Amino acid sequence: MQNTIEISHVNKFYGKKQALKDINLSIGQGMFGLLGRNGAGKTTLMKLLATLHEKQSGEVSVCGIPIQKAKEIRSITGYLPQDFSMYPSMKVEECLDYLGVLSGMSRAERKERIPVLLKKVNLMGKKNSKVKSLSGGMKRRLGIAQALLHDPKVLIVDEPTAGLDPEERIRFRNLLCEVAKERIVLLSTHIVGDIEATCEQIAIMNEGEILWRGTVTELLENARGKVFMATVARDELEKIKKKGIVTAMLQQGRNTEVRFIMEEDTNGTEYVPAEPNCEDAYMYCLHQHGCQVMGGEE
Amino acid sequence: MLFFKECKKILCSLTFVLYVVVVFVMYGSQFVPALESPVAVPQVGEDYYGTTETDRPEVVMPAAVESLVSEYLEGSYDAYPVGFYKQVKLKEKDTVKMAAIIEELTGLSKEELDGFEGYEMGGLFGGRDENGNEIMYYKEPVLPGYELSETVSYERFRELMRQVDDIIGGGSKYKEETLLSYFGTVEKTYEEALEDYNELMTGDNLPESYLRLFSDYAGIDLAIIPVFVCVALWQLDKRSRMEALVYSRKISSLKLLLARYGALVCCMAVPVLLTLLHAVIEIAWLYPAMEISFSSAVGVTLLWLLPSITVVTALGAVLTEAVSPLLAIFAQGAWWFLALESSDLVGDITRFCLIVRHNSMGRIATFETQWENFVWNRCFYVGLSAVLFLLAVLVYEWKRRGRLTGLVFGKGQSRKEGDDENGTL
Amino acid sequence: MRMERYRKIIWENLRHFFLLPFLTATGIFLVTALMFNLSALSEREAAKPIEFFLSFVGVMLLTPVFYPEQNQELRDVISSKRTSYLVVCALRVVCSVAAAAVLVTLFAGLLKWNESAVTNAHSYGGLATAVFLGAIGFCVAGITDNTTLGYMAAVLYYLLNYGMKDRLGKFYLFSMSAGRFEGKEWLFLGALVLIAGTFAVLFFRRKRWGY
Questions:
Q1: Which residues from A are below 8 Å from C208, CB to CB?
Q2: Beta-carbon-side half-sphere exposure of residue A286 (alpha carbons within 13 Å)
């Protein structure tokens, strides 16, 4: 059985609004990041892969199985939605047990898998606590445990780190990386740092379209020579804002230290070229594809 | 203004639309038929003029005594101690007392009663005739022969009936308030019917009678459906995850909830007032020759119906705030049921029953004797509304300050914001 | 294997979500049984507690079927599992109808034991009434995604029966109390249409709109 997700010419409408426009994508083993603004269509695409939405046209297959066969797809995919929540009055272990039943696992399988996963996500000590008593991070970990419970070939996680504190976030990212060794993990986020830390392959979505597809290195390469830094006075800052995209600012007395993206250094040698980071590269990519990008307007 | 903003939220909600539909449909199906034609003048030679209650001893005494002997032999007594039917079986000590009363009334001794064989219950029976159609027939009970004692005066009889009711434990057929409706109901004569008609046509009796019937019907719906509208509005903040945002505003809890509560009561009163207006116009239309003054009748109607809305809304608010919307609905449903079941159609206005009933165009005197109870009852519910509302404010204030996070469903029941924008509530 | 899975799903649902509705329904059953005279009733009188009170058992059992997953994200998680969410709901409906049948039959047995004139029509008609009233709550709760509205709709329909009486025709709830013991199959049919219709609406809506 092939180990890829193949998406070709997929369209999806909500009434008149087109949520996905002719999506073509091939996703292989390992971590794959979907990057984009809120409302870019990431969640729709992921729900489509988790068989929660139907496409209107195009072909999708997951590990060789066409997406129409929902039951088979569901047995090989695990899904963690954006705001994971569970029956508040169920205990952690009971929750996993119930979801395991829904996934069609036998009693023996559940008995074996549940403790393994609870250990993996570090919730063993909480197995008898009610879901409503868990903190946000613990809930998210319970979410990843339930998604992995039936040992899926494909794991789909939607915005897994939004709202977590830095410590939980790093822990969560590491967990995902570990999991991705033996399966396809599709991760969506609007937090660029997550992608940088975890994914090799990424795609950038905007308004239902795939703008860009490649590796993180390629994305960075793409923005090389377009990122500058300068320390400028207020009126100069205004000029920069007009011509480029400001990605960071730091007030230093009367002057401002500013990091920005610009097609070329129009001012000769005044701006210092900088090594692009993922965030710059992402912003540049959006800009390159004609998206309205507003930077530095906090 | 906050009040109008709350009104807008209510008016745009699906629950309120349903509320309006119910008020109109119930009005149209229950009260409007009474408006089809004016009350007819009784004519000589009609078969049936309706029934009335009489206080004539020769009617009441034999009927009550027959029932009492029958129930004694049956070994159980029908009673409605809290509005619900109960079969009372007496202890030996009480049976002796009961037998003594029967002996005083009929001369039958306890031995004669206990030794009687061949007793058969009387009353209305259902069965089927040869063709298999269901029929109802009346059967006389088979009782030992007796004569009513002539030495027992009517006053003594009434006194004995009070004792019987005490022995049974209250709520029996023999109790003072219902004795006549059970044992004194007779068909009206032409003269009585005419007298009733003439009484109806004098003074404010006509509009008052009509609007009493109107209030009787409306009072039933208003003892339950406001809770739905109230709960829907009250949980809107929680369901759309607005609580914390609203909590942190400057406005005082009292002001905020007063606007909300006031808006609920006002909005829910509007459709009721519209049906009332329609009723008033139709009544005036039915009797073009009469000059009808509606002022006192409308006053009574408002006193009748508004407290129902305020108290149901207040209870819904406090329970939703403190515990859960579902509990509010269940509790109100249970209360409504008990109230509906525990009140007789006419002549049973008590001080504490949520639903006040007078399901008759006539029986004016009966209502007048209960006027004090009526006013007491409605004022009590106005007071209770205020207490419950203040309690809701208190709970809200506690939650706002973080001293209380909801007793049962305070956490984990919220939904994604935006779900309620389309007014599904 | 599938039966085994369904059995387990039913068991877990009974344990976690069924208890409260069932207790409420049993409460209604007990109140009806204790508060009302059950002995030596005629056919029509015996129909009264069944139609006027016991019918709420159906509302208590069927309306909250969707309640545990009123939260969209939770529903997404459940929907992403191999067993379809609607199958889980269908199993809950089956349990609820079965529980209603047990309570109604038990009540009819209680009446019979007390020497009232009960026939099979009473249990059959009583179940039809309860399930129809419950199906109204179920349908509205499912389609509006709001259980409160479901309860409200059921209570409103009940009230409507007080007011409109026979004008509701074949869907008049209290027909046995009015002496007509035939025609209750319309209520069953109505309930079936409401329940199946709700599932159809939810099925297509989920496919198309994903909620």
A1: 54
A2: 24
| 3-state DSSP assignment of residue B88 | strand
Smallest Cα distance from C72 to chain A, Å: 9
What confidence tens digit (pLDDT) does each residue in B73-93 have? 988 888 876 655 667 888 889
* Shortest CA gap C90–chain B (Å): 23
Q: Is A101 helix (H, G, I), strand (E, B) or coil?
A: helix
For B271, the token pair is 């459709």
pLDDT tens figures, B146-170: 888 888 899 999 999 999 999 988 8
What pLDDT, in 10s, does the model give residues A220-273? 888 888 888 888 888 888 888 887 888 888 888 888 888 888 877 666 667 888
Could you tell me which of B313, B328, B333 has the C-alpha nearest to residue B257? B313
DSSP secondary structure, A118-158, as one string: HHHTT-GGGTTSBGGGS-HHHHHHHHHHHHHTT--SEEEEE
Interchain contact, A83 vs B416, CB within 8 Å: yes
Half-sphere exposure of C136 (CA within 13 A, CB side): 21
Q: What is the dihedral of CA B157, B161, B163, B167, to 10 degrees?
A: 150
Contact C145 B15 (CB under 8 A): no
Domain ranges of chain B: 2-41+203-400, 53-187
| Dihedral over alpha carbons B202, B208, B213, B215 (to 10 degrees) | 180
3-state SS class at B75: coil
Put simply, the answer to whether A81 touches C76 (Cβ < 8 Å) is yes
Which pLDDT value is given to residue B412? 36
> What ipTM is given for this predicted complex?
0.85
Any CB–CB contact under 8 A between A122 and chain B?
Answer: no
Could you give the CA distance from residue A42 to residue A159 in angstroms, rounded to a whole number? 9
A85 and C74 in contact by Cβ < 8 A?
Answer: yes
Concatenate the DSSP letters of all residues of C130-183 into one string: HHHHHHHHHHHHHHHT-HHHHHHHHHHHHHHHHHHGGGGGGG-TTTTTTT--S-
Interface of C with A (CB under 8 A): 1, 5, 8-9, 12, 16, 68, 71, 73-74, 76-84, 88, 206-210
Enumerate the residues of chain A whose CB falls inside 8 A of the CB of residue C8: 101, 107
Residues in chain A: 298
**With an 8 Å Cβ cutoff, are B411 and A83 in contact?**
no
**How far is the C-alpha of C185 from the C-alpha of A217, rounded, in Å?**
70
CA distance C87 to chain A (A): 10
Give the count of beta carbons closer than 10 Å to the beta carbon of residue A41: 24
Q: What is the pLDDT of chain B when averaged over all its residues?
A: 84
Nearest to A81 by CA among A145, A141, A158: A158
How many A-C residue pairs are in contact by the CB < 8 A criterion?
Answer: 75
User: Choosing among C148, C149, C166, which should be mutated to test the B contact, i.e. which has the most B CBs within 10 A?
Assistant: C148
In the numeric block, the tokens 């129409």 are attached to A68
- Please, what are the domains in chain A? 5-215 (3.40.50.300), 223-288 (no CATH)
Give this prediction's pTM: 0.77
In chain B, the residue whose alpha carbon lies closest to the alpha carbon of A132 is: B412
